[in-house]
Amino acid sequence: MNAAVRAVVRMGIYVGAKVYFIHEGYQGMVDGGDNIKEATWENVSSMLQVGGTVIGSARCKEFRTHEGRLKAAHNLVKRGITNLCVIGGDGSLTGANLFREEWSGLLTELVQQGLINEDAVQKYSALHIVGMVGSIDNDFCGTDMTIGTDSALHRIIEVVDAIMTTAQSHQRTFVLEVMGRHCGYLALVSALACGADWVLIPEMPPEDGWEEKMCQKLSATRSRGSRLNIIIVAEGAIDRHGKPITSGIVKDLVVRCLGFDTRVTILGHVQRGGTPSAFDRILASRMGVEAVLALLETTANTPACVVSLCGNQAVRLPLMECVQMTQEVQKAMDEKKFEDAVRLRGRSFENNLKTYKLLAHRKPESELPHSNFNVAVLNVGAPAAGMNAAVRSAVRVGISEGHKMFAVSDGFEGFYKGQIKEIKWADVGGWTGQGGSLLGTKRTLPAKHTDKIAEQMRKYNINALLVIGGFEALECLLQLYEARANYEEFCIPMCMLPATISNNVPGTDLSIGADTALNAIVETCDRIKQSASGTKRRVFIIETMGGYCGYLASVGGLAAGADAAYIYEEPFDIRDLQANVEHLTEKMKTSIQRGLVLRNENCNENYTTDFIYQLYSEEGRGVFDCRKNVLGHMQQGGAPSPFDRNFGTKISAKAMQWISKKLNETYRQGRVFANTEDSACLLGMRRRALIFQPVVQLRDETDFIHRIPKEQWWLKLRPLMKILAKYKTSYDVSDSGQLEHVVRDRPKESDATAAI
């Protein structure tokens, strides 16, 4: 929430508006007085890394009454406030909408009571509202992610990872209760992210007789050699008859039926606290700026809207449509129409549920289709967190589809050396939370070894390839595509999943591993900034990885509150450096104590990190001193973030379903033969959807010398960072969200096309 508050204040001041804080939510609006204060630029500095909200929040009974809203209207009119930006859940937003509808009536009453005059009624005739959804449950329809959800998932996953190590040692079963009274999002996604054995959520109560099924599943997992079981329960979990299923009930059940040593952990309010994740800071900053733009464009006739994210695209949706749909979910659950409830929750929720079911529950051998196809999975390039989650997902979905799955160690180098072995369902248990690449990965390209690779493909009769990696993976697929002319072995379906911390692969907005790297950068920047608290004014120059791609520096800069980020894609010269130093000097003289400057490792061969450090030290002498840090390989390591685990899991499942479809389409006269462009694809996320794109078509979109796409969406976020750092810059509104409507019943998608 603080990142959103900061963005609204600074964007508001940037567009020339007067911005006010209303402390303690609606209570502060009703009470007035010192609760409503004008906000300055400096008021919101160094609060990005603070959890909760610095302006306070409170449940307010008085605002629910007409008298309360009358007082609130009076307090706003006194200060000439007619634009409200509300950050909260559906209750707060519904209240805001009611307030807006009553506004003119309230003003009339205030005139009758002699509290305001007719001029004020004319001048402040309309109240404009825009909402941002802040809720850890992600229970608001129409938006893919609400502010706070990702951070709550971070807390849950940190706890689950820690619990898994103790459960492993003691051979225990753990029942974890997570928040979500009416919405199972946190439970579902954390179950997906840690590979839990069983999950219980309010939207999809288990079938009658679930107790027995669950115990069978737990004991089957143990008999396959696993030493632990994890069961995740949403606090609002119920059975088909609406009876609560508590963590205690689940524990007693396991102890009674199986005699396993079982413990319960209730996470409680831990999930609401802590430092916001990188994703939440960027989401909130983007939404805050979008909210101010939406307020500037509203007229008396436009409906109140919420700004939100759909895929990677900012959208505006009518507030009441979203609220009504959110209420419909509850109604569907009350009427025991559970399938409807899941569908109304939206694409992302529905797809999470499908993917979870696909990966957690192994069908007995007798029920599996037998395809006789062999599919190989390998990692290429540098390691990225989330690769293992993708491999696990591919292996399990492949086995469910009836294929034989083969794992190749050490990329194409291992391929031509014959390091290929069959990989089974249980071999990938517990892989989701592991960082790096468990299969091993190398940068070797196949072109020089096509003979030997083709020989291995014949030997193992490989019918399809799934390559998970970064820019090299794209080059590999292009080389294999070229080699089809000479080797029939490569005339098979091939799919690539982008996995690299640099996020420099064409054809996709996001890559597996980039979110984990951003979190590492942001966490370190927070610590580095904190190291200067209490000392005199200080500027830090921090070098990030990314090759020639400025994604980590730019987006990391936005999330950490940097003053500048130097990147290769946006050329800069000595005049820009000078302007930045002067800008910082100016800010330091007034009130800001710490500055942060990020530099991408390859942004300029002459303006090195040392050069920039020395320049800033010299020019800032007497005003601030300088320190420099090269973050290095810590950006590549670490346990994958919840986002990367799920992104990897979902796109990998989707890729395997595509491979199955292609195998069936291209199987002729007893063999697979695929040589069309669309049989060698990259699966990427573009704006709102996951799309398979032929790698040949991506060639023109790529700068191969600098290993980056020619066009990159995140460059549009750079002006945002500059505005939030007090630069006078122009902001391109062409990409801002347009008002849309909430989509209700979508045509039934086949499982294979469910979007992320």
UniProtKB/TrEMBL annotation:
Organism, as annotated: Chanos chanos (Milkfish)
Gene Ontology molecular function: 6-phosphofructokinase activity; AMP binding; ATP binding; fructose-6-phosphate binding; identical protein binding; metal ion binding; monosaccharide binding
Record keyword Ribonucleoprotein present: no
Protein name: ATP-dependent 6-phosphofructokinase
Pathway: Carbohydrate degradation; glycolysis; D-glyceraldehyde 3-phosphate and glycerone phosphate from D-glucose: step 3/4
CDD domains, sorted: Eukaryotic_PFK (cd00764)
Gene designation: pfkpa
Role noted for this protein: Catalyzes the phosphorylation of D-fructose 6-phosphate to fructose 1,6-bisphosphate by ATP, the first committing step of glycolysis.
Self-association state and partner proteins as the record states: Homo- and heterotetramers.
